[in-house]
Design goal:
The structure holds two protein chains of two kinds.
Chain A (H helix, E strand, L loop, with lengths): L1 H20 L5 H26 L2 E3 L4 E3 L1 H30 L5 H23 L3 H19 L5 H36 L8 H6 L6 H18 L8 H8 L2 H30 L3 H21 L5 H22 L2 H32 L10 H4 L1 H14 L6 H16 L3 H24 L15 H15 L3 H14 L1
Antiparallel strand pairs in A: 1-2
Chain B lengths: L1 H21 L3 H26 L3 H28 L11 H25 L8 H17 L3 H23 L4 H29 L16
Classes of the chains: A mainly alpha, B mainly alpha.
């Protein structure tokens, strides 16, 4: 109970403190400290769930089970390491004159608002509040995407705002429809939107309304999760915003939106008893994989390329959730975890590489390994990990997804394999050229924080070789829940 | 009697949605938006009074406060500060847009048919109109090339969704409704800041300048 309060309270307090002191020189340390408190609270919460099982606190307002607890910990952890990374990164940006101290205050404050909204999406038991928090997450990041105030960044932020708000408005309609179905069974009032209550009566919910609701929900939340063909905002927002924001957008926000879809899918599956929701998710998923992989190979901007890679991986995860079954769902949960860790690690190295060379154009970034071997190796290893090379964790999850696809949905396997192959060839070629060769990179005034990169990659490596028993249990329990 | 009043309100909503689609002056759009909020509030009052769902009064109160008074004032202020109160947008082919709008209304009624048969509310007949209002706002956002009308389109869409919630289920639970209103307020505040950023960067609020981030060029 207290853990939930601290997990949600610390970013809220942090946002207020940083709104006041966010422009001081020590603010970035405070930023790290607040994130550390959030992470510690979420770790305590996780331990509590390990020992006591699912929690339902404050009049059923918050709900922690095996599905969201690892996402809460993951979100708090990546938010913490991103805060570590953003300290030298933002100091360097300030040194280059790209941001002023007032904007730094905005950045610090909004960062915690963003973390708060994401944690709220995960922890709330009310699917209406889930919608509210996810919309708030968009609003919190709009001004962060346009932080540099360049025409391109403002355009990206505008596109992000309009597309995501319109998209998510569809999800609100979906939520209204769920409420319509739920009201009949549970009666009116606040309880009819509580997920745990809905889950108990999901078999009695009106199937026609629920299937229509799911169409709106997947379009709405899918826009947020970067599923094709609603992904247009994603590469722009990732490329034009500051790199710590790209890292959390890609590593965390996409996961959160997908989480919302999967929570709703559980209800819809219970009401329909047909694979309608799963088929829809597989369709969106496979389209995202194909579009992600093929557009990825055409990119010239390094952050755009990795943004398309996120679309591809989100598609793969959605596809796996759509297939359903214990193995595919287990793999999807694992994939969510390892993608989040790997992609944020890659963005950390990309951010520093772009600072060292003063550009995000891949053709102008060369020889990273010469001036700073850790950045070079970090990017190389991160890329190998995200491309699914063994022994990293992404290999394990992709292997599970592909083998299940061959068994359950044989038509999809070749499409997935070709797309992954295209992504592999294109990305490896680009990254290899950036890492090796003659260099134009220069030293940075503030030494980059590369510990997070290797911590993340270390964890991904560990998950590829050995999954801790409690984590495996969670995945299995969650997989059973999602079905 | 009440059912007729509710139907009247629904038709007014639809009429305003069409008027917005064709309105070229930015200031008039703001007034239309305020009127739409007023109709929405009156509708909530009638439904609340007739069905005894008294929390709808509160919802109507917040709607008046926010959508009839606060937001139009903020928009009005922004428009004056940005000096665009006399802006007239050149809309291409209003008749074609209207025809597309009518097609959307037909589509919306078809979409709403299975749901409204299941809903047990007195207002269920208006669900089709609610969906139509949402879709028309969407169409408006697509056809506009300027920033402020796009935002008004977005807010009109929110109105349509509130209307849908009232007709399908007598409104969402209060805590959710308040949360949605909070998002709308924060959203408009952020956009207010954002308008100035857009103008600073592009010297105009015309979105046609914003076409640099195209896939073909990257």
């Amino acid at each position: 109970m207290n853990e939930v309060a601290i997990t949600l309270g610390s970013p809220a307090v942090g946002a207020i403190l940083l709104a006041i002191y966010g422009d001081r020189t020590q603010a970035s340390r405070l930023n790290v400290l607040v994130s550390l408190v959030t992470f510690a609270a979420s770790a305590l919460l996780a331990m509590r769930v390990i020992s006591e099982g699912a929690l339902l606190v404050y009049n059923d307002a918050f709900f922690v089970d095996s599905f969201n607890v690892f996402l809460v910990t993951l979100t708090a952890f990546v938010a913490f390491t991103t805060a570590l990374f953003s300290r030298p990164y933002m100091l360097n940006e300030q040194g280059r004159g790209r941001i002023t101290s007032r904007r730094l205050r905005l950045y610090h404050c909004m960062y915690h608002v963003f973390v708060l909204t994401m944690l709220l999406v995960l922890l709330t038991n009310n699917i209406g509040i889930m919608w509210v928090a996810l919309e708030a997450a968009t609003l919190a990041t709009v001004l962060l995407v346009s932080l540099y105030r360049t025409p391109a960044s403002i355009e990206a932020a505008w596109k992000y705002f309009i597309l995501c708000s319109v998209g998510i408005a569809q999800a609100l309609f979906g939520t209204i429809l769920i409420y319509l179905a739920a009201e009949k069974v549970l009666g009116g009032g606040g309880n009819a939107l509580l997920w745990t209550h809905l889950n108990q009566v999901k078999g009695d919910l009106e199937p026609t309304v629920m299937s229509l609701a799911f169409v709106f929900l997947i379009v709405g939340y899918g826009t947020k999760a970067g599923l094709a063909p609603l992904h247009n905002w994603l590469p722009d927002a990732h490329a034009e915003g500051p790199t710590p924001i790209s890292a959390v957008l890609s590593g965390l926000l996409l996961n959160i939106a997908l989480y919302a879809i999967v929570r709703c899918k559980v209800l819809v599956d219970g009401a329909l008893e047909t694979p309608f929701a799963g088929n829809l998710m597989m369709g969106f998923g496979i389209l995202s994989v194909v579009i992600g992989a093929f557009f990825l190979s055409r990119q010239k901007d390094v952050k755009r390329m990795f943004a398309y890679s996120s679309i591809e991986h989100m598609g793969l995860t959605t596809f796996a959730f759509g297939m359903g079954g214990p193995v595919a769902t287990f793999a999807a949960l694992l994939h969510m975890t390892v993608h989040s860790l790997t992609k944020s690690a890659i963005f950390f190295t990309v951010g520093h590489a772009a600072q060292k060379t003063g550009t995000q154009v891949m053709d102008d970034i060369r020889g990273l390994i010469v001036t700073n071997p850790t950045i070079g190796w970090g990017m190389m290893l991160g890329t190998l990990a995200i491309l699914g090379m063994p022994p990293f964790g992404v290999f394990a999850s992709e292997f599970l997804i592909l083998t299940t696809a061959m068994r359950q949905e044989p038509w999809a396997a070749p499409i997935l394999l070709v797309s992954l192959g295209v992504a592999f060839a294109a990305m490896f070629m680009r990254v290899q050229a950036m890492v090796f060769g003659e260099t134009t990179a220069k030293r940075l005034p503030h030494a980059p924080a590369l510990v997070p990169v290797f911590v993340h990659l270390g964890l991904v490596l560990m998950l590829g070789l050995w999954i801790p028993p409690y984590l495996a249990d969670w995945y299995r329990l969650a997989a059973k829940l999602i079905g | 009697m009440s059912a007729q009043l509710i139907n009247l309100m629904a038709s007014l909503m639809l009429l305003i949605a069409f008027a917005m689609l064709a309105q070229r002056r930015i200031l008039s759009l703001v007034y239309l938006f305020a009127w739409q909020g007023a109709v929405l509030a009156v509708n909530s009052l009638i439904v609340g009074w007739y069905t005894g769902h008294h929390e709808l009064y509160l919802s109507a109160f917040f709607t008046v406060l926010l959508k009839v008074i606060a937001l139009p004032m903020v928009l009005h202020y922004l428009i004056r500060r940005l000096g665009i109160q006399w802006d007239v947008e050149t809309l291409i082919n209003i008749p074609a847009t209207m025809l597309a709008g009518i097609a959307l209304v037909v589509f919306a009624f078809n979409l709403a048919l299975p749901i409204s048969q299941l809903a047990e509310t007195i207002t269920r007949g208006t669900l089709g109109i609610a969906i139509a209002v949402v879709l028309l706002a969407f169409l408006m956002m697509i056809t506009r090339r300027k920033a402020v009308p796009q935002v008004i389109g977005f807010l009109a869409m929110e109105n349509g969704l509130f209307f849908a919630a009232t007709s399908a289920t007598y409104g969402m639970p209060m805590v959710v409704e308040l949360g949605i209103l909070l998002d709308v307020i924060v959203g408009v505040l952020i956009l207010g800041i954002f308008f100035f950023q857009v103008r600073e960067a592009f010297d105009s609020l015309d979105l046609k300048h914003m076409e640099k981030l195209k896939e073909s060029e990257s």
